[in-house]
Design brief:
single chain; 139 residues; alpha/beta; 2,3-Dihydroxybiphenyl 1,2-Dioxygenase, domain 1; four-stranded mixed β-sheet; globular; Glyas_Bleomycin-R_OHBP_Dase; VOC_core; Glyas_Fos-R_dOase_dom
Length: 139
């Protein structure tokens, strides 16, 4: 047993080709709020939903060690949890934006996946069973 407890995922840092294009996409598509801190200028730029979100950094487009299709050291995807009702609303929003998305039934969760401008997979996920059927109670 640890002497500390994790509260929630604070952020995921991602490298993007075009900072402004990515900022606009995350604001328009997911409604994330932009935070720029003068102490950290010029980067990262945070895009948050409440206290969780992403931190954007410029990509080094000359770095060829990890390719786009590599399943090696890179982020596979990241997920934001939403209510079941908001998942349905998000699907409608994605359709209005003309975004391609993929729906997956994960038994305990329903998820929708889409790609950001740099090809990062962004998941919205909603629990569809009673929380105690999935989340273990603390001992």
């Amino acid at each position: 047993m640890l002497d500390f407890k994790l509260n929630f995922l604070d952020h995921v840092a991602i490298h993007v080709k075009d900072i402004e294009t990515s900022i606009r996409w995350y604001e328009k598509t997911l409604g994330l709020k932009r935070y720029e801190l003068p102490e950290w200028k010029p980067y990262p730029i945070f895009l948050l939903a409440g206290k969780t979100g992403i931190a954007l950094f410029p990509a080094d487009l000359d770095d060829t060690e990890v390719t786009f299709h590599s399943r090696n050291v890179k982020i596979d995807h990241y997920a934001f949890q939403v209510s079941r009702e908001d998942l349905d609303r998000a699907i409608l929003h994605y359709e209005q934006l003309g975004l391609e998305y993929n729906f997956q039934d994960h038994h305990y969760f329903h998820s929708v996946y889409t790609k950001d401008p740099d090809g990062h997979t962004v998941e919205l996920t909603a629990i569809v069973v009673a929380e105690d059927q999935f989340y273990q109670k603390e001992p």
